[in-house]
Amino acid sequence: MTTSSNVIGAFAPIGAGLPGKKLDKSIGIMKAYSSCVGEGPFAAELAMTEEEKHDLREAGHEYGAATGRPRRVGPIDIVASRYGVSCQGADELALTLLDVLDYMDRIPVVTHYDLDGKVVDYFPMGEALNRAKPVVEYLPGWKCDITSARKWEDLPEAAQNYITYLEKAVGCKIKYISVGAEREQIVIR
Predict the structure, then answer these.
(1) What is the CATH topology of the domain spanning 27-188?
(2) In what side-by-side order are the strands of the sheet with 92-96?
(3) CA–CA separation, 167 vs 72, rounded Å?
(4) Environment class of 175 (CB within 10 Å of its CB; exposed 0-12, middle 13-18, buried 19+)
(5) Which residue of 21, 58, 103, 112 is 20 to 30 Å from 143, comparing CA positions?
(6) Separation between Cα atoms, residue 32 and residue 142, nearest integer Å
(7) Where are the alpha helices (DSSP H) in the chain?
(8) Going by DSSP bridges, is the β-strand pair 92-96/174-178 parallel, antiparallel, or unpaired?
(9) What is the pLDDT of residues 20-41, one digit of tens each?
(10) Orientation of helix 78-88 relative to helix 157-170, angle to 10°
């Protein structure tokens, strides 16, 4: 719904001009919260008030690079992320923009969808996705600047718990954690 590009990892060799190659390892990239460009269903945005979305958009600088238009934002969506990990066949993940959540007292997480009054943990297809409403849980925030963290031990316990929670929920190891915009602002586990 948000891009015309094929973002499945198996197409990377084709895009690189190596159509006969098979991937040995797939590293998925998952943002610490959700964002969306364009129209279409986006259940995660329904989980926040307009003020909360504004604050997250500002913290993450979520504006179109070319147009400057505000992006749609919401909490991380476990259901969509787990589906993405499955589609990619990801062996491990890079979690980006964790530092954007530094300001939050508590961090919302979309754990399931309410689909026509039934709580589901699968990603609905077609028209059903338009009816999906987010089911939200909250995890404690860390309320401190993590941009200087370079080792797992440098991260506050609440940030470690958030990462571990996401890892278990999507079923894939989070190996790389970005804690800022600069190349060296990364924690490798």
Answers:
(1) Adenylosuccinate Synthetase; Chain A, domain 3 (3.90.170)
(2) 27-31, 92-96, 174-178, 186-188
(3) 24
(4) middle
(5) 112
(6) 14
(7) 12-15, 50-60, 78-88, 127-131, 157-170
(8) parallel
(9) 777 788 899 999 999 998 888 9
(10) 60
Beta-bridge partner residues of 140: 106
Indicate the residue type of 59.
A
pLDDT in tens, 64-115: 888 899 999 999 999 999 999 999 899 999 999 999 999 999 999 999 999 9
Token code pair at residue 115: 């689909």
Tokens describing residue 147: 């941009």
pLDDT band at 2 (very low <50, low <70, confident <90, very high): low
User: Token match 């964002």: residue?
Assistant: 35
What is the domain partition of the chain in residue ranges?
27-188
CA separation (Å) from 129 to 38, 141, 159?
16, 29, 30
Strand 27-31, strand 92-96: pairing = parallel
pTM of the full structure: 0.91
The count of other CB atoms within 10 Å of the CB of residue 73 is 25
- Tokens coding 183: 């190349």
CA distance 68 to 39: 16
The single residue listed with the structure tokens 């991937």 is 23
Distance of alpha carbon 131 from alpha carbon 146, whole angstroms: 37
Residue type for 156, please?
P
